[in-house]
Specification:
This protein is α/β, with parallel strands linked by helices and about 325 residues long. The chain is built from nine helices and 13 strands. The chain is about 25% helix and about 25% strand. α2 links the parallel β2 and β3. α5 runs antiparallel to α8.
């Protein structure tokens, strides 16, 4: 089949590379435009563009993939199918009709759970034991098409969103290739795939900066999941309101929920002995093991405590 790949972020790269090495003909890459660098700020990375250009593909980066001029350009590729993954725009019905077989989308959840832009993050945050990847035959509604292939995996107890994304990106290769086989054999009349159960839909909305704030009234286990879920962005932070100085923002890079119940108020440092830092939560105690002060690099907690006199009894806040 003639394929047009649509993707921008790193989650799409393994599938893109697998398609380029398959018997199918990938004729173009459609990706998001790369904003220009401003001042010292570099342009954001676009790993899909890097792969496409390295392979000599035609790379098309429209501001609006559904605009009339974009549809005209897509028709020039004469693709049988669009393969979409981590792209960043929703394809309109007119756009999907450009390819005779429409589009398939690789999504990082077990649909219909966690529809939306941040399924990996919210699966970890909400304490899911299992997640996976789903390939759908696309419809205009967000992540709502019929399921063509699904593959599940357990979430490791200490796995971060970054680590889980890398695993799921590779896990998705097989289901995408299987879905292409299904579409090649499809008579274009019979029902294709399995409809999603609308009663099981959950939302995985886009992450916000405010998601980084810690609510100490939550349990240590919940905060530990938050730290793993919101890496690398928006992160998880607290403020140390130092005497005689400006509050210092501290990003929590690695923490462990302890089984020790705390008698202090949530957010209170209950242990700071030069080697360990424990904070009371609404339920249980949180051990902070790796931390990043504002403007500094991440450091193990013993190194941090050698340079910062964070004493027991200090209350860490978020605003």
């Amino acid at each position: 089949m003639r394929l047009v790949m649509m993707g921008t972020g790193p989650f799409a790269v393994p599938t893109f590379e697998a398609l380029l090495g398959s018997r199918h003909d990938v004729v173009a890459l459609v990706t998001r435009p790369t904003p220009a660098a401003v001042g010292r700020r570099k342009s954001p990375a676009n790993p899909m563009r890097d792969v496409g250009e390295a392979r000599g593909l035609s790379v098309f980066a429209p501001d609006d993939v559904n605009a009339a001029e974009s549809l005209a350009r897509l028709r020039e590729f004469s693709a049988d199918l669009f393969v979409v993954c981590d792209y960043g725009q929703i394809l309109s019905p007119d756009c999907l009709r450009v390819a005779p077989l429409g589009g398939v989308n690789l999504h990082a959840s077990l649909l219909p759970k966690f529809r939306g832009s941040a399924p990996i993050n919210w699966a970890i945050y909400r304490g899911e034991k299992e997640t996976g990847v789903s390939v759908i035959h696309m419809s205009p509604a967000l992540d709502a098409g019929n399921l063509l292939a699904v593959k599940a995996t357990l979430i490791e107890p200490t796995e971060t969103a970054v680590e889980l994304e890398a695993r799921l990106a590779t896990l998705g290769i097989g289901p995408v290739l299987d879905s292409l086989e299904m579409l090649e054999q499809w008579d274009r009349v019979s029902p294709l795939g399995e409809p999603q159960n609308p009663q099981l839909v959950t939302n995985a909305r886009r992450l916000r900066k405010t998601d980084a704030e810690v609510k100490w009234t939550r349990s240590a286990r919940q905060i530990e999941r938050q730290v793993r879920a919101f890496q690398p962005w928006p992160g998880t932070f607290v403020l140390w309101d130092r005497r005689g100085g400006e509050p210092l923002r501290l990003v929590l890079n690695r923490v462990t929920a302890l089984g020790v119940e705390a008698t202090a108020a949530p957010g209170t440092v209950t242990q700071s002995d030069g080697k360990s830092l424990h904070v009371a939560t609404g339920r249980g105690t949180l051990a902070i093991e790796r931390i990043q002060p504002a403007g500094k690099r991440p450091m193990e907690i013993a190194e941090f405590l050698r340079g910062y006199a964070l004493e027991e009894g200090t209350v860490l806040v978020t605003a």
